[in-house]
Fold this protein.
Amino acid sequence: MSNVAYIGTPARGDVGTPNPQRLEMDNLIRRELGVGDPSNPEQIARALRERYQGDSRARAIDQEAQGLPFLQTSPLFVPAAMERTATAIDLEQARSDVDKDLTELTTSNLLKDVAPELDGWADAIRAAVTEAINAARFGLDPRQRDRAFGLRRTLGDYARLARLVGALTPSMNHNYRSLAQSIDEVNSVILVLVGESMANNGFAGGRFLLQAPYSELQSRRDAAMHALRNLLGSMQTRGSANDWPRGIDAYRKLFEALEAQGQGDLRALLAEQELGRTMDALVRRAAQGSAQGLRALGSTAQIDLQRFYRLINFGYQLVNPESPPLTSFLEALRLFADGFSVAGGFRLLRVARPPVVFYGLYTQDEEDPADRRLTQLTIHRGRLAGQLDCLMRCNCDDITALSQILLDKALYDIDRAIDLYAVGQTDLGQPELRAASYSYLLDALLSTTVCAGSATNPPQPGDPSAAGQPASAVQRPELRKTLVTLSNLLRPKPGTPELADWEAETIGSFELNRTDNALIPGSVFRFTDVLHQELCLQLDGEQRWEQLVRQMAPNCISASAVFGSGGEMTALLNNAMTLLAQGATDVQTDCGLQGPHIPAHIETSLDTIAYNAGRNGSGRS
């Protein structure tokens, strides 16, 4: 009976004690209807009328209030069909090209020996295209945007594999490269679709994108409330005789510390009503992740969250030894607050919309140098792809085939650099820094690619053994110029023509940070280590291609000659890592996978201490 009286009108002795169920219902009403007082029926009625003003039943209720029949509603106009946009036409053409190329490969008599493998390609590529397009249409949702980028990378892997197998299958090289070109078309349209979906939803004048999906914000909010109840509940729970009151001790010290340091206003966040109201207001203001909600949130979120971060900073390391309930609450609060930090992705508007419409419509400030570099990367990437498509049409000797494979690798890495720039936020943040690592690969390609038969032993100037040998692919003036331009766009180099695309501060600090291997602010990573790690990841990925190539391509050129320990691809990446680490201090040059250190069981540790023995029992007397 006491519970019934408690949930309804509070009993006389319970006026100051909030009920958890009632608080949850009040918070739900505040969050969903945006009312200040959940017990005020007029506010709730007004909020319900505004929420469902477009519903026919709501209009019928208004008509009844005016003396009209309840079911008499105004006829609804049928919306006109949406016009086909240029992107929709491009997407339809790109998907059609992929289907035709896959049909050509899977039905070719020359490829009957690898027909099952090609059928697997066709199924995986078509599924990835469909899923990527569906995800790209919801660019404002961080989870869908990340999913679109992941599937775009998967499709890029298939395009790279098609070019690779084609280079090793001269009779079908054109067919494989045609499929790769069609996949590139789809990938380009996917990038445009993500930016276009943002623009079509009105995201034009701001740069604030949610770090976490809107659907996850509510879960983070509930986790913070649960952690607070856990902290406050420790004062009401009777522990056993041997339990230390860590929760009570932490709450007391936090309460006293806030008072002593003049931060008493933060103690309001230790009450469920105030914390829930503040978090619910932020979640509601996001307006289901719409463009208008994001712009409103971007101008207010950091002001509201400042209280959260102040409380977190005061609470950390306040109790020694640390209290699990307090730490859980602070971590849950930080998880919620971090969900409102700015995410990358606003540069996608530069890809989706032509520059002529940006003035007055899509930006309020001057275009950033990094934005211009992204635009230039997309332009020169297409130019490089067109130049490479013509490379092996002249001859099919081993040197040209190896050059084709290495240059296709460079094209693949330019796509990865474009993805990194698309999600970056600053002139040289960590995404842009990882993209800069590919410039060293381009430099290594320009200096060590197969101009005399091997990247491991390139000919020296004046070497008579180089006379009469086939000219290197990168000795073609236009192709070489494109590679140099791309390298300069990815990395600031004093004296290059693209200096206008880098901020002066970045140009001056890049080489200094590389040689010093400086710690990146706000990160546990070091500058040169990040560059090296990105190429290490590339090396690890390339070594996994060898068995796949052996299965798909004839043995005209051995796969180990490309991907093996002494292969051309391995030599190219090793040369690139040598270039970026040259003159730098304390660079982590080990490319092995660094797994977690798993401690021994407590029994093993006690046995080691008691008997002065090793973890495996060695040395035990």
